[in-house]
């Protein structure tokens, strides 16, 4: 390593690139783990080769006069006179033996990164580089990382899933957030979002302080706006191609208060120092402090329900349609047996698919403005941005990452079916935009326990078991459901009869998948409500079993032991 004598532990640093002539040499705080500061000297060729970047050597840029070119890495070549250096042991100056009176010169700065290295006229009265000996570098990194800042705030890309959709802000650290986890490529100097492949931190392009705000951009190893080098001694991130500019959170002390920019590097600034934390370590820390969270349930792959917080047990309901666009989403009383309320979330595609209606997903309707369209089911398509919803774990809000500041909103209703769901401007104070993530299994178990505590027999397991069963009308002196005795379509109507397990008219099995009651003794015939959509206008009968016949769909409401038709 080469430490510049008399300059507060500053060492010769190649600027950070792994490619020829991409960055210029600067002074940086001495760090034996830096891949940019460790060299080997070939006494035969006079070349100084980077230990961590084999085949690249210190090159003075080619000038034959003082300060006309800047030093950089270049392909090692024993015939390239721009790479020849001799050490004057008495003065500790590095001189090019074929360039009269030219010595390696740091440009004159007294702080890190302030000036570039050149060949200057040899002057023994200047501060000089001192040869200290080669040390090994660090590993190549690549671990998933969070960056933390004061008050447990982390670097957050703002939530966008495309280039330049959102700008970087501080947010409460959350290792489950798709906006906060990155991998660093030590060769390209880029931070790539782990959850948004192909998108990297980009400073926005300005060459002056605060001239642009940071955002995600398409990863491009040649894009200098995406190059960042960590100063391990100060935990500051600077752009090696932009003089004295460092990553800066804008100065806000609370979440989302300011945007990230590049500012003049200042070791005294509270906005420019970043802790690098392992995501697995943060996940473990979070699990210890919070246990299972809503995000854990959402991303577990299990069947879930979305309950609207603070609205008397109303859940997200697709409206009942079984085809794309047939009905719009509304709030309905939470029912784990409803085929309209059970979903699975795909973390990779960011889609909510209806469990009972495979291939149909929640879709916002297509509008890019608040209230412009109503949510409905539509054919699942991972490329359809209208189906992308991401949970903010802190607020329990679901936002579309491609539609800035638009969140899922229940429309404002406070009773079942009152209003249709839309995308609306995100508002933390809105009572219509916060959704509890419920495990369907846990919901059913809690309901079962409640019924048992109330003294009601727990028959749901028998119902769903596929075993033979009878339906006794509660409180009516041992009367059971009886099909009337017919053995063909509509031959007789259902009546109450004294319960008799030997009767061929009273014994059924229940198909939990198709929601049908099938006669055990009359194969192929099922309980059918007769077809009316009005109250009391037709009588129930046996009819040929058809899983697509909605008149045969029945679901038990465990709260009150009532059988209702799903649609």
Short description:
With 567 residues, this protein is mainly β. The protein has four domains: 2-131, Trefoil (Acidic Fibroblast Growth Factor, subunit A); 144-280, Trefoil (Acidic Fibroblast Growth Factor, subunit A), CATH 2.80.10.50; 294-441, Trefoil (Acidic Fibroblast Growth Factor, subunit A), CATH 2.80.10; 459-564, Trefoil (Acidic Fibroblast Growth Factor, subunit A), CATH 2.80.10.50.
3D architecture notes:
The protein is mainly β. The protein is built from four helices and 44 strands. The protein folds into four domains: 130 residues, Trefoil (Acidic Fibroblast Growth Factor, subunit A) (Trefoil); 137 residues, Trefoil (Acidic Fibroblast Growth Factor, subunit A) (Trefoil); 148 residues, Trefoil (Acidic Fibroblast Growth Factor, subunit A) (Trefoil), CATH 2.80.10.50; 106 residues, Trefoil (Acidic Fibroblast Growth Factor, subunit A) (Trefoil). It is 6% helix and 30% strand. The strands form 20 sheets. Strands 13, 14, 15, 16, 17 and 24 form a six-stranded antiparallel β-sheet that branches. About 2% of the residues have low confidence. InterPro entries: Ricin_B-like_lectins, Ricin_B_lectin.
How is the secondary structure organized here?
Layout: E1 2-4, E2 10-13, E3 26-29, E4 39-42, E5 47-50, E6 56-59, E7 72-75, E8 86-88, E9 93-95, E10 102-105, E11 118-121, E12 129-131, E13 144-149, E14 153-156, E15 169-172, E16 182-185, E17 190-193, E18 199-202, E19 215-218, E20 229-231, E21 236-238, E22 245-248, E23 261-264, E24 275-278, H1 279-290, H2 294-298, E25 304-308, E26 314-317, E27 330-333, E28 343-346, E29 351-354, E30 360-363, E31 376-379, E32 390-392, E33 397-399, E34 406-409, E35 422-425, E36 435-439, H3 440-453, H4 460-464, E37 479-482, E38 495-498, E39 508-511, E40 516-519, E41 525-528, E42 541-544, E43 555-557, E44 562-564
Antiparallel strand pairs: 1-12, 2-3, 4-5, 6-7, 8-9, 10-11, 13-14, 13-16, 13-24, 14-15, 16-17, 18-19, 20-21, 22-23, 25-36, 26-27, 28-29, 30-31, 32-33, 34-35, 37-38, 39-40, 41-42, 43-44
């Amino acid at each position: 390593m080469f430490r510049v004598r008399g300059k507060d532990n500053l060492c010769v640093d190649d600027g950070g690139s792994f490619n020829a002539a991409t960055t210029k040499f600067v002074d940086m705080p001495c760090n034996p783990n830096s891949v940019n500061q460790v060299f080997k000297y070939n006494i035969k060729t006079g070349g100084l080769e980077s230990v961590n970047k084999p085949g690249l050597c210190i090159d003075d840029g080619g000038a034959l006069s003082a300060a006309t070119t800047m030093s950089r890495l270049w392909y090692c070549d024993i015939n390239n006179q721009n790479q020849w250096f001799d050490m004057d042991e008495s003065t500790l100056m590095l001189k090019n033996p074929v360039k009269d009176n030219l010595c390696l010169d740091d440009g004159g700065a007294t702080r890190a990164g302030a000036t570039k290295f050149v060949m200057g006229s040899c002057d023994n009265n200047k501060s000089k580089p001192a040869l200290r000996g080669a040390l090994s570098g660090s590993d190549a990194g690549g671990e998933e990382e969070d960056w933390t800042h004061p008050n447990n705030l982390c670097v957050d890309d703002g939530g966008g899933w495309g280039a330049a959709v959102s700008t970087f802000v501080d947010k409460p650290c959350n290792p489950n957030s798709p906006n906060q986890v990155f991998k660093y490529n030590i060769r390209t100097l880029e931070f790539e979002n782990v959850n948004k492949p192909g998108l990297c931190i980009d400073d926005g392009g300005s060459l002056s302080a605060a001239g642009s705000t940071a955002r995600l951009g398409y990863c491009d190893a040649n894009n200098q706006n995406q190059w960042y080098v960590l100063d391990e001694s100060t935990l500051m991130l600077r752009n090696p191609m932009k003089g004295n500019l460092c990553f800066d959170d804008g100065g806000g002390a609370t979440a989302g208060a300011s945007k990230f920019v590049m500012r003049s590097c200042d070791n005294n600034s509270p906005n420019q120092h970043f802790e690098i934390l392992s995501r697995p370590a943060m996940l473990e820390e979070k699990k210890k402090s919070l246990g299972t969270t809503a995000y854990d349930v959402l991303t577990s792959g299990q069947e879930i329900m979305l309950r609207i917080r603070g609205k008397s047990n109303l859940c997200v309901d697709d409206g009942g349609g079984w085809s794309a666009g047939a009905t719009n989403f509304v709030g309905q009383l939470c029912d784990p047996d409803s085929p309209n309320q059970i979903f699975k979330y795909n973390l990779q595609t960011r889609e909510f698919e209806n469990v009972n209606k495979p291939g149909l997903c929640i879709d916002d309707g297509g509008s890019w403005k608040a209230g412009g369209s109503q949510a409905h089911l539509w054919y699942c398509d991972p490329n359809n941005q209208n189906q992308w919803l991401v949970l903010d774990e802190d607020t329990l809000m679901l936002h579309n990452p491609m539609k800035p500041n638009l969140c899922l909103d229940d429309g404002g209703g406070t009773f079942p079916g009152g209003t249709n769901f839309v995308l609306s401007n995100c508002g933390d104070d809105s009572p219509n935009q916060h959704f509890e993530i419920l495990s369907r299994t846990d919901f059913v178990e809690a309901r079962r326990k409640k019924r048992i505590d109330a003294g009601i027999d727990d028959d749901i397991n028998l119902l769903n078991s596929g075993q033979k069963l009878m339906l006794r009308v509660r409180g009516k002196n041992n009367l059971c459901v009886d099909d009337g005795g017919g053995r063909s379509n509509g031959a007789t109507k259902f009546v109450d009869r004294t319960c008799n397990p030997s009767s061929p008219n009273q014994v059924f099995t229940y198909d939990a998948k198709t929601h049908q009651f099938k006669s055990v003794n009359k194969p192929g015939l099922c309980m059918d409500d007769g077809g009316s959509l009005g109250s009391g206008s037709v009588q129930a009968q046996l009819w040929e079993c058809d899983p697509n016949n909605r008149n045969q769909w029945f679901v038990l409401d465990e709260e009150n032991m009532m059988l209702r038709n799903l649609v």
